[in-house]
From TrEMBL, chain A:
The lineage of its organism: Bacteria, Pseudomonadati, Pseudomonadota, Gammaproteobacteria, Chromatiales. This is Uncharacterized MnhB-related membrane protein. The chain crosses the membrane at residues 28-46, 53-74, 90-108, 147-167, 179-198, 204-221, 233-256, 276-297. InterPro entries: CPA3_antiporter_subunitB, MnhB, MrpA_C/MbhD. It comes from Rheinheimera pacifica. The keyword Glycoprotein does not apply. Residues 180-293 form the Na+/H+ antiporter MnhB subunit-related protein domain. It comes from the Bacteria. The keyword Cell membrane applies. Belongs to the CPA3 antiporters (TC 2.A.63) subunit B family.
UniProtKB/TrEMBL annotation, chain B:
GO terms for cellular component: plasma membrane. It comes from Rheinheimera pacifica. This is Multicomponent Na+:H+ antiporter subunit C. InterPro entries: CPA3_antiporter_subunitC, NUOK/Mnh_C1-like. It is a multi-pass membrane protein. The chain crosses the membrane at residues 6-29, 36-55, 67-90. The keyword Disulfide bond does not apply. It holds the Pfam family Oxidored_q2. It comes from the Bacteria. Belongs to the CPA3 antiporters (TC 2.A.63) subunit C family. Keywords: Cell membrane, Membrane, Transmembrane, Transmembrane helix.
Length: 316, 108
């Protein structure tokens, strides 16, 4: 009963934070409330007994999205809050309430039967090479999804690098600098543990990659890790390696399949599946971490780069 | 679906509520950054709904791993889409700085 009370409080808090983030008059307040909302979402995932999602959400939803929105906020000019008239607020609210009623009615009519995929996944878990069902689904049963997701990440990074103007140079203060240095080894240790633990318990490439990215963003914002930029050849290689290692592993698995009767793309041979999954996950973790980091911090201002190249000549 | 535990029913209600709030924010706006935030809130509501659906019809408290894996993929795709949207927004601001003062806009 007390747990139900906790759930009710959490749900109420989520709704209030979301509403306040939408309705707040200052955009800054909206962004800050959204970050708090992301943290509460991580708590909700933990309450729903999905620790995989809680780990990813805590790093992505609250950390990276918050950093992204703040840097977007820094680029915007401050302007007066826009005041909407009553009809402008009322009609969307009526429409949304109608939608909400429809959605709730539809949800309560869903048949309460489990998806047939659950039994299939459980039965095939022995042949998947890992013992954690979520990792088995991500990297064995539905590895197409994961491969294409890595492609989507790569495309998003390429697109963002094309269109985004150079980031403004920011200053860091001593406390955040020393704190980020203290945090860095712990982040690396935790990410390594998450990657390794993913085979048998909650954890895996996404969570480890998101955590590494969060740590790298903090260091990068404090002007550490200056080699971590798109113009560095090795960084580009590692970012592409997420997709390429996946494809190469799939080709290797096709070659190693002994019975030539049915060679299927992206099917690991059962006795080697564990090794394949670990290999793919290792490169996916590095690629996800670097891609997310570059998506958030972007490239430094062109002037700063030019100064470094030309040995400190005066530039605009 | 009415035979779910009260906890899951509560989360279904919250998921639908988050979806509605996000939809309202997306329609009303008025700043583009707030619309992007609203899209993320809609996404959070849909992910929460998927988690509740993962528990549907399973007695022993284990969730459907296929749906969980889909949500995990969705989280990463959502953040990359948000990053791309914000990059486009930054470009837009750079192209026309005075967005809320139409008289200063270089009109077509």
């Amino acid at each position: 009963m007390s747990l139900l009370l906790f759930d009710a409080t959490l749900c109420l808090l989520l709704l209030v934070l979301a509403l306040a983030s939408i309705l707040s008059r200052q955009l800054v307040h909206g962004v800050i409330l959204y970050i708090a909302f992301g943290l509460m979402m991580a708590l909700a995932w933990a309450r729903l007994a999905t620790p995989d999602l809680a780990l990813a959400e805590a790093a992505i939803g609250a950390g990276l999205t918050g950093a992204l929105c703040f840097s977007a906020l820094a680029r915007q000019q401050l302007h007066l809050p826009v005041v909407l008239s009553w009809p402008q607020r009322l009609w969307p609210a009526v429409f949304v309430l109608l939608m909400l009623g429809g959605v709730l009615a539809a949800l309560l009519q869903l048949p309460p039967t489990a998806s047939p995929l659950v039994d299939v996944a459980q039965a095939e878990l022995i042949n998947s090479g890992v013992s954690h069902p979520v990792t088995a689904v991500l990297l064995n049963f539905r590895s197409w999804d994961t491969l294409l997701e890595l492609v989507v990440l790569l495309l998003a990074l390429l697109g963002a690098l094309q269109v985004a103007p150079a980031a403004k140079a920011t200053t860091s203060w001593p406390l955040s600098l020393s704190w980020s240095r203290l945090l860095a080894p712990m982040v690396i240790l935790l990410a390594g543990y998450l990657l390794w633990a993913g085979a048998s318990q909650p954890g895996g490439a996404f969570q480890a990659g998101a955590l590494l990215a969060a740590g790298a963003v903090v260091l990068r914002l404090n002007h550490q890790l200056n080699w971590l930029r798109w113009s560095n050849f090795w960084i580009r290689l590692l970012i592409v390696s997420g997709v390429s290692a996946f494809v190469l592993a799939a080709l290797l698995a096709m070659l190693l399949t002994t019975d030539n009767t049915d060679v299927i793309w992206l099917r690991w041979p059962p006795q080697l599946a564990g090794g394949f999954i670990l290999l793919v996950e290792l490169f996916a973790t590095l690629a996800i971490a670097l891609t997310l980091t570059l998506l958030v911090v972007g490239e430094p201002a062109a002037a700063e780069q030019a100064q470094q190249n030309s040995g400190g000549e005066a530039h605009d | 679906m009415t035979d779910l535990s009260p906890q899951l029913l509560l989360y279904i209600g919250t998921a639908a509520g988050l979806f509605a709030i996000g939809l309202y924010g997306f329609i009303v706006g008025p700043q583009t950054l707030r619309r992007i935030l609203a899209l993320n809130i809609i996404g959070a509501g849909i992910f929460m709904l998927m988690v509740v659906l993962a528990y549907r019809g399973l007695a022993d408290g284990a969730a459907d791993p296929v749906l969980q894996a889909l949500i995990l993929t969705g989280l990463v795709v959502a953040v990359s889409a948000t990053a791309f949207a914000l990059a486009l927004l930054a470009r837009l601001k750079q192209a026309r700085p005075g967005q809320y003062r139409p008289e200063q806009e270089p009109g077509p």
